[in-house]
Amino acid sequence: MDLLQYMNKNYYLLVPALWVIGFALKQTPHVPDWSIIWILILAALSLATFAFGINYEAILNGIIASGIAVLGHQYFIQKIIIKKTDKKKQRPKKDNDLKK
Question: What pLDDT is recorded for position 9?
Answer without folding.
Answer: 80
